[in-house]
Amino acid sequence: MIDIFFEELSSEIQKGITEKGHPFRFITMATVGNGPIARLRTVVLREVSQELVLSIYTDSRTEKIKHIKANNQISFLFYHPEKMLQLKVEGTANIVTDTSRLTATWNNVQPNSRKDYITNNSPGSFIKNPDHVEYLEEENYFTILDIMPTKIEYLKLQRPNHIRAKFTKTSENWKGEFLVP
Ligand SMILES: Cc1cc2nc3c(=O)[nH]c(=O)nc-3n(C[C@H](O)[C@H](O)[C@H](O)COP(=O)(O)O)c2cc1C
């Protein structure tokens, strides 16, 4: 019976990349690095594999990459307002080094979106005026992060009973347990 909730969450995550306007396209990503406080930011969910490996694109000079190099444990927050469905995903981040995958993906990035990965100065550098951003012509800092989920918590607010369940990845499959909401 708990399996239907895992199937629902998997299908909703997939819709984040296949359905236009789906709220799971934009997710919150948290990293902690070595610091005492979590750093949060919105990212676009770009790829989802059959095994639920979640991929995002970023610039290799960002703080999130520094954090992941120090500590590859991250979490994502998904929220679907119409379904009142929240997913908390914890997982291990891997910085993709496969150059053929990086090149093939980069070639599919829309020309206008390429600007996000080719600023002359690192993202987060101070500038006097927002128009004063220079772009590189030959190089890019395009990076793919693959996140392998290890734990997913499902929470749906509904009447008469809210549903909360925790799914933990074992060596073979996912083990689910209901929790008090
Ligand atoms: C709607 C929206 C979508 C975003 N998508 C991404 C993204 O896919 N990848 C990314 O690196 N940053 C994305 N950002 C910017 C991040 O939220 C963040 O500001 C940036 O990555 C720097 O974060 P960091 O310094 O913590 O690494 C997005 C921001 C917004 C508002």
Automatic annotation (TrEMBL):
GO terms for biological process: pyridoxine biosynthetic process. GO terms for molecular function: FMN binding; pyridoxamine phosphate oxidase activity. Pfam families: Pyridox_oxase_2. Residues 12-96 form the Pyridoxamine 5'-phosphate oxidase Alr4036 family FMN-binding domain. Its cofactor is FMN. InterPro entries: Pyridox_Oxase, Pyridox_Oxase_Alr4036_FMN-bd, Split_barrel_FMN-bd. SUPFAM superfamilies: FMN-binding split barrel. Keywords: Flavoprotein, FMN, Oxidoreductase. PANTHER family: PYRIDOXINE-5-PHOSPHATE OXIDASE (PTHR10851), PYRIDOXINE_PYRIDOXAMINE 5'-PHOSPHATE OXIDASE 2 (PTHR10851:SF3). This is Pyridoxamine 5'-phosphate oxidase Alr4036 family FMN-binding domain-containing protein.
